[in-house]
Q: What sequence folds into this?
């Protein structure tokens, strides 16, 4: 049985569905200003920090400035109230258990900051499952180094002492898939509620959830 050298998981939308409640909180803010948030635009920015802030889009639609700080605080309060009730996404814990039993190390590669990712992992009781947690803090907050650039995945491979070609990345967004492929990793796409229906043709495998995903199957994807 061939095993992958490592698994590298995205965070937002894959380990925890932060994306749905974030979108819904911003939709509510737009509607309070008699505006609709374009779902296509929102989906295009998922998985990357390389995009305009949603308050800039609201200002453009309104044709006037808004209090970005106050609206961001409002968004945070709304989405955090929802997030604290959420468990990990389906299959996450089982996959991490299987990887641990097989001796396959795991890492997180997220475009978010450590201040966002780590507390959620700790709340979910998952922090100790990851040998490395790589975030925007580790590659610099230059938007050009965010996904779909490969920097986060390359940093994760280095942290695990693995060649990228020996790793399998798991992602829920097309931006994340492109980043992992650019790093030279095999990629499994797991579309979530916010990314279902998007183009995942670049992935090596597309599955509806992490539930039932076999570590040996992931090893078969590795060609490096």
A:
């Amino acid at each position: 049985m061939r095993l992958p050298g490592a698994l590298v998981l995205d965070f937002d939308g894959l380990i925890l569905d932060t994306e749905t409640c974030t979108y819904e909180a911003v939709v509510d803010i737009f509607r309070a200003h008699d505006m609709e948030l374009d779902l296509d635009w929102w989906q295009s920015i998922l998985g990357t920090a390389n995009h305009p802030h949603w308050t800039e889009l609201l200002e453009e639609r309104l044709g006037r400035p808004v209090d970005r700080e106050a609206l961001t605080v409002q968004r945070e309060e709304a989405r955090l109230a929802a997030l604290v009730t959420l468990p990990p996404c389906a299959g996450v814990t089982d996959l991490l258990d299987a990887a641990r039993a097989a001796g396959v190390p795991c890492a997180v590669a997220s475009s978010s900051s450590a201040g966002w990712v780590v507390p959620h992992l700790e709340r979910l009781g998952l922090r100790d499952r990851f040998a490395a947690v790589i975030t925007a803090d580790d590659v610099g907050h230059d938007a050009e180094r965010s996904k779909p650039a490969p920097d986060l995945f390359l940093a994760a491979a280095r942290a695990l002492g693995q060649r990228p070609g020996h790793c399998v990345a798991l992602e829920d967004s097309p931006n994340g898939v492109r980043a992992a492929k650019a790093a030279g990793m095999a990629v499994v796409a797991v579309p979530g509620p916010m990314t279902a229906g998007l183009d995942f043709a670049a992935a090596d495998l597309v599955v509806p959830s992490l539930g039932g995903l076999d570590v040996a199957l992931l090893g078969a994807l590795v060609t490096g």
User: Anything to note?
Assistant: Strands lie at 6-9, 106-109, 132-134, 167-171, 186-189, 205-206.
